Hints:
single chain; mainly alpha; 5 helices; globular
Amino acid sequence: MPDFFDDRGFNEFYLKSAKSKDKERLLRAFYDAWIDYWGPYNTIRTQTKSWVKGAWKDAKAKKAIKEKLLYRKFTAATIDGLFKKFSEWIKISCK
Length: 95
């Protein structure tokens, strides 16, 4: 049985700790940008922990996702906060 990435756990982790008033919209936009970059069959919820962990190390992917979020009018600081929390969640849950 594959060890799937816990996207619901990340959602709770991020939403509890984020201070941005647009945090729910940002989270949805983050997942949309992820799918735009990796393709419809590589959603976070259907991937194993090791795949998500490896994909998140791709600097080109992070840059593309950040550009999509900036285009949607999120601030760089808000995006960086989400990225930091996502990296923390990967360290916590993808052992």
